Amino acid sequence: MLDVHVPEHPISGVRDFLLHLVTITVGLLIALGLEAGVEALHHRHQRDEAQSLIRREIRNNLDLLHAGAPGTIAERTQMSTVLHTLEALERSQPGVLHDSDFVFHESPIQDAAWRTASSTGALAYMEYADVERFSNAYKEQALLQQMEEQALDDYLELLPILAHDSGSRGVISPEIAKEAIPYARRIVAHLNGMLAVGAGTIGTYEEALKP
Asked: Which CATH fold topology does 14-208 show?
């Protein structure tokens, strides 16, 4: 807050008035300039800190996706085998399912730095091109997480159906196999989608991390 004080001595003429006016004006301009400079430095610090945290978060998520891709491929292969076994059991053909056939891993992808930068307004101080690249990366990431949640939901629907026939998920009746098949198909579809979207997410991550 800026304070302007009345003159200590009475103004004796036009020259004295103009001198006093110029003094006040210069003082105000200096104060406003200093305030704007401090604010600009604060905004620059906010921008640099937010960019650093977002880049670190994206880099960590990129490493997680690279590390988790082989596991997702293995899960798709495993669930495809489960689906084929269920289709055989539906036709009363031989087939056995085991507990080890049902494994699903979630990737702990983070977005805290992006959400914090959005809520604090730090994005407003970044270059438009940088914000656009970051935004694209997190949009792809959100789509990947959505597919992952859908796959998990189908797993949670599938397992009780199979457990209904036998506690060990060994011999499954044709009726139970028929009921379980749509869920297994959806899981395979979601895992295929996760691999496709994951590849796109990796691409947007790499683009976002460019200098």
From this structure: Four Helix Bundle (Hemerythrin (Met), subunit A) (1.20.120)
